[in-house]
Design brief:
- It contains seven helices and five strands; from the N terminus they run αββαβαβαβααα.
- It has 153 residues and is an alpha/beta fold.
- It folds into two domains: 83 residues, no CATH class; 33 residues, no CATH class.
- The strands form two sheets. A three-stranded parallel beta sheet has the order 3-4-5, with helices on one face.
- The termini are far apart.
Length: 153
């Protein structure tokens, strides 16, 4: 039986149309930047001056993939040049390149969850999901790979 593809709902059509930002509801200095990318994406950067001050003094930053798009804008808005020593991010190549460009002295790290997630996705891409679930040897081997970034006890 053929299942028809979903059609665009009126709500989806409204969401896809660009809208003006009603700034009269946003407190002064809270809308820090309205960033538009070359491919038409829009990112609104909200922060208080106190939050920007805290961020500029932070030695370790925890960031996600969307951060690479707004990184330069954020660093321009900080009251002082940040002295980032280390950064924890997921395993996305773009964010690592962006952080190394902006903060070349910072050590890049990832958390164990992100490591395991990346390894599991790669194992699934290689067709090892079924073997992992059905064969004890493959399961044990994968557990060892998942534990690679952890120091021995």
């Amino acid at each position: 039986m053929d299942v028809p593809l979903p059609t665009a709902t009126p709500a989806n059509r409204v969401q896809s149309e660009p809208r003006a930002l009603a700034v009269n509801f946003i407190p002064d200095e809270f809308l820090v930047d309205d960033i538009r990318t070359v491919c038409g994406q829009r990112h609104l950067l909200f922060s208080t001056p106190e939050q920007l001050d805290v961020l500029s003094k932070a030695k370790k930053w925890y960031i996600d993939a969307a951060f690479k798009i707004v990184l330069k804008s954020i660093t321009r808005k900080l009251p002082v040049e940040p002295a980032v020593v280390s950064c924890v991010a997921d395993f996305e190549r773009g964010i690592w390149h962006a952080m190394r460009r902006v903060f070349p002295q910072a050590t890049m790290m990832s958390c164990a969850f992100q490591w395991c997630q990346a390894v599991w996705r790669k194992a699934c891409d290689l067709g090892l999901r079924t073997a992992h679930l059905r064969h004890e040897g493959v399961h044990r081997y994968n557990k060892n790979v998942f534990g690679t970034p952890l120091p021995p006890c």
